[in-house]
Write a structure and sequence with these properties.
This protein is an alpha/beta fold. 37% of the residues lie in helices and 28% in strands. The protein has two domains: 4-118, NAD(P)-binding Rossmann-like Domain (Rossmann fold), CATH 3.40.50.720; 122-219, Regulator of K+ conductance, C-terminal domain (Alpha-Beta Plaits), CATH 3.30.70. β4 (69-72), α4 and β5 form a beta-alpha-beta unit. The chain is elongated, with a radius of gyration of 21 Å. This is Trk system potassium uptake protein TrkA. One of its GO terms (molecular function) is monoatomic cation transmembrane transporter activity. Residues 135-219 form the RCK C-terminal domain. It comes from Jeotgalicoccus aerolatus.
């Protein structure tokens, strides 16, 4: 059975989500007050509605509570974002994912019941910063306010060294949770496995610990 997801707000963030969901063969409902935006993405959704997401009666008429996830991607109007999220939870939507414009907005969304709060601009800024500072970091993912996952490309310095030899947990307080090697993903790798130059190490730790590790590696 296909998943059904609703996206409210068709700015850059919401529009990109709609296109990705379309590629994943998901039934998508889109809602936006701007007719031009709804028309712009008409090739990517199953149903498009021009309307105000703070209109509770309109949301009810769409059967919004039956959707697997509702993504509130409203751009500039914080009040509308908060009110829409509150209405969706009151209507019994199982999972509401809301875009936050700043940390204060995010805290409010969490308090009123948003299941997931995303900070796309902040997270993208952090990704870019990590890539600029360390040429070996290929991806960065925040998993909490103080902990993250990074993908780090191993170099000749790691060649044929075992995970145990690196002793990353003791030296830096971080852990290798997986290794990408060619087209394979080695999850929870054996501590005795030898690392090859070019392996992508997937590391988890606190932001402070990961920053310390990146700085240390760049100085070697």
């Amino acid at each position: 059975m296909k998943k059904e997801i609703a996206v409210i707000g068709l700015g850059r963030f919401g529009g990109s989500i709609v296109m990705e969901l379309s590629e994943m063969d998901v039934d998508v409902l889109v809602i936006d007050t701007d007719e031009a935006r709804v028309n712009e993405y008409q090739d990517y959704y199953s149903e498009g509605v021009i309307g105000d997401s703070t209109d509770e009666a309109m949301l009810k008429s769409l059967g919004i509570k039956n959707y697997d996830n509702v993504i509130v991607a409203i751009g500039d109007n914080i009040q509308s974002s908060i009110l829409t999220t509150l209405i969706l939870k009151d209507l019994g939507v199982k999972k509401v994912t809301t875009k936050a414009q700043n940390s204060y907005h995010g805290r409010v969304l969490e308090k009123i019941g948003a299941d997931t709060v995303v900070h796309p601009e902040r997270d993208m800024g952090r990704r870019i910063a990590h890539r600029l500072v360390s040429s070996s970091v290929v991806e960065y993912l925040e998993v909490s306010n103080h902990h993250s996952i990074i993908e780090f490309t191993s170099s000749a310095k790691f060649e044929n060294k075992r995970i145990n030899d690196l002793n990353m947990r003791k030296k830096f307080g971080i852990s290798i949770i997986a290794i990408k090697r060619d087209n394979d993903l080695i999850v929870s790798p054996d501590p005795n496995i030898s690392i090859l130059s070019g392996d992508i190490l997937i590391l988890i730790g606190s932001d402070e610990q990961l920053n310390h590790f990146e700085n240390y590696m760049d100085k070697l």
